[in-house]
Structure formats: C-alpha cells, structure tokens
C-alpha cells in the first residue's frame, strides 16, 4: 500500500465528508406530482401510495402553496375526471378538471412556482389509452397529435408554464410546439417525456388516476430492454424543440438517465414513479428500511446519475429537510 492509497482519510469527520461531497440535492431540483379529482368533497387517499391523495380543488391549492413555500422547482398536475369518453374530450375542455386545477394553482402561486401539466389522454379516455383509437383498435398516432395540440393550448391558456407530453406518440413535441406558437404561447415550455418505458412500476398510478386501461401500452411506451432507442427518442425530441427531456421511471433506468444526460443540451428530468414510492413506503412501514434515509439516498442517486430535476411524490417533505 502506498501512502496515497487511503481514501478513508477524507471520510474521517462529518466536516471533511461535507467538504468532498460531490452531489447535492436542493429543493429547486424537486418537482411534486399531484392528482386533482373532479367532484370530491374531501381528499381521497390512494391506498397503494400511503400519504398521497387525490386532491379536491381546495386541498390542491393548499398543496401548491406548500410546494412554493418549500422552495420546490415545480408542481406537476394530473387530472382525474369523473367522466370519460373515446377522445378524452375532458382534457381539452377549459372546464375539465385538469384545466380548472391548473388555473387555480396558477392563481395561487403566480410565477413563484413553475406550474406543469401532464399532457396525455389516458386519464380522460374511456379505454384508458394515451391516445385516440383507430377503427381497428390500435392507437392512432397522428390523430392523437391533433388532440395533444389542442390539449397543450388549453393547458397554456389555463396558466401552465410547462406542458409535459407523456404519451410517447411520434412527433408529439414538434406538433405541440407548433400549436403553442400559433396560439401565441411562445414562452410555454415543453418538458418531453423522451424515454418512457412500459413499466410495472406505474401500477399504483393506475389506482391514483382511476385508470380505465385493460391491456398495456407496449405499442407506444418503450421496451425496458432498450437503451439505444432512448437516445433516438431523445434526439428526436430535441430536434422537435423540447426545452427539457425526461427519463421515466428512474431507479431501474439510471444507465439510460446517464446516457441521456450526456447527450442532452437541455435540462434533464427523471421521474421517481408511483411504484418506486410504493415499494419504499411498504418496506419502511414494515420497519425494514429507514424511510427518510432511503428517500434521500434514492433521490441523490438519481441526481448523481445525471438528473437536474427529479419528480418525486416526496418532494415537499424531502425539501423541508434540505438546504435551500
Ligand atoms: C401517463 C402517465 C403515467 C404516469 C405518468 N403519466 C402512467 C402510464 O404511463 O401508465 C405514471 C406516473 C407514476 O407511476 O408515478 N399519462
């Protein structure tokens, strides 16, 4: 052993460890995903995501105010409508629950907290797919783009600073950019779910949004086996004008996140999804792991892998334990 072969030297005191710590998570790096449901008079717990609820309009406003006070980087809204139809028309309707929620959250937080909208049809369609269907039952890519264009404009009209197309349709970023620009929303940003995998980790989310889906999303979401394809998807989204790109889920895809971060010339987000939340919550409930340490460790790992921005259902709680 040479005298230099002693990396433990830099671990001897907390202050030394702090001096050489490479990765920092700040509240501004965190985005809180929230669900707002139509027609509730009290928040409704999501059993597979202990601590997460479907919000009423009232409690949504409160959650947004708390997120702003905690110094978060943003809030991402998902809508849970009480009715569904074949084309997901509630997504485009200015009085649809998601657009109402966006308007109220924006009124609450102004420009202090970036307000983001999930731009996808699955919560609004009666078949639960992320797009509209062709007569043969397949998801019709180009017909879906037209609905996404209207949906994104409705979200920007409602006050969203950022729209986040998550449906993995080809050309969605370019089509939405053109629609936003044509409607005068040149400053509304697009956070593209560029590499979104067909994942078992979305299980609890399906309960969270009362998903109507039977079957799966494998004709549009990516095969978990594929990493190169994620780079192709990202390259296309960047060429179409994505302002930020995202990898989802996070923990099983840290290699993909790392390569997307190396490729991207825009900020990179990663989504610690519902199943990641459920898995950690369940183990912690049983006393098998420590919740606070596990949350910070996973979020730090996601950040270390290359995420500038992390969507996590723990965003507000975690932020209160972090330096600003
Ligand atoms: C689709 C969408 C999903 C999630 C975010 N946007 C579900 C899916 O693709 O089936 C999952 C989020 C999570 O699991 O936390 N609009």
UniProtKB/TrEMBL annotation:
SMART domains: ALAD (SM01004)
Pfam families hit by this protein: ALAD
Coiled coil: none
EC number: 4.2.1.24
Gene3D superfamilies associated with the record: Aldolase class I (3.20.20.70)
Catalytic activity: 2 5-aminolevulinate = porphobilinogen + 2 H2O + H(+)
InterPro entries, alphabetized: ALAD, ALAD_AS, Aldolase_TIM
Keyword Cell membrane appears in the UniProt entry: no
Pathway field: Porphyrin-containing compound metabolism; protoporphyrin-IX biosynthesis; coproporphyrinogen-III from 5-aminolevulinate: step 1/4
First and last residue of the signal peptide: none
Keywords for this protein: Heme biosynthesis, Lyase, Porphyrin biosynthesis
GO molecular function, one term: porphobilinogen synthase activity
PANTHER family noted in UniProt: DELTA-AMINOLEVULINIC ACID DEHYDRATASE (PTHR11458:SF0)
Subunit structure: Homooctamer.
Sequence similarity: Belongs to the ALAD family.
Function: Catalyzes an early step in the biosynthesis of tetrapyrroles. Binds two molecules of 5-aminolevulinate per subunit, each at a distinct site, and catalyzes their condensation to form porphobilinogen.
Protein's name in the database: Delta-aminolevulinic acid dehydratase
Protein encoded by which gene: hemB
């Amino acid at each position: 052993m040479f005298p230099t072969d002693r990396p433990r030297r830099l671990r001897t005191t907390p202050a030394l460890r702090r001096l050489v710590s490479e990765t920092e998570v700040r509240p501004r790096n965190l985005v809180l995903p929230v669900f707002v449901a139509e027609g509730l008079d009290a928040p409704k717990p999501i059993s597979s995501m202990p601590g997460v609820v479907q919000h009423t309009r009232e409690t949504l406003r409160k959650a947004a105010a708390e997120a702003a006070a905690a110094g978060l980087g943003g809030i991402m809204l998902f809508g849970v409508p009480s009715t569904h139809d074949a084309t997901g028309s509630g997504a485009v309707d200015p009085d649809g629950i998601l657009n109402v929620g966006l308007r109220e959250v924006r009124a609450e937080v102004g420009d202090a907290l970036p307000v983001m909208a999930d731009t996808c049809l699955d919560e609004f369609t009666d078949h639960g797919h992320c797009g509209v269907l062709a007569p043969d039952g397949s998801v019709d890519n180009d017909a879906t783009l037209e609905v996404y264009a209207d949906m994104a404009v409705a979200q920007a009209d409602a006050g969203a600073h950022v729209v986040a197309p998550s449906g993995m349709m080809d050309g969605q970023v370019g089509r939405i950019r053109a629609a936003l620009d044509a409607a005068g929303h040149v400053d509304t940003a697009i956070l593209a779910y560029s590499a979104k995998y067909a994942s078992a980790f979305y299980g609890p989310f399906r309960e969270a949004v009362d998903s109507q889906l039977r079957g799966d999303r494998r004709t549009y979401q990516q095969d978990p086996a594929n990493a190169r394809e994620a780079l192709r998807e990202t390259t296309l989204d960047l060429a179409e004008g994505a302002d930020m790109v995202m990898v989802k889920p996070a923990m099983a895809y840290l290699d993909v996140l790392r390569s997307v971060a190396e490729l991207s010339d825009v900020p990179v987000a990663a989504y610690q999804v519902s199943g990641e939340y459920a898995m950690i919550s369940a183990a912690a409930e049983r006393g098998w792991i420590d919740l606070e340490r596990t949350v910070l460790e996973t979020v730090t790992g996601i950040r270390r892998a290359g995420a500038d921005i992390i969507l996590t259902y723990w965003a507000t709680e975690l932020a209160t334990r972090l330096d600003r």
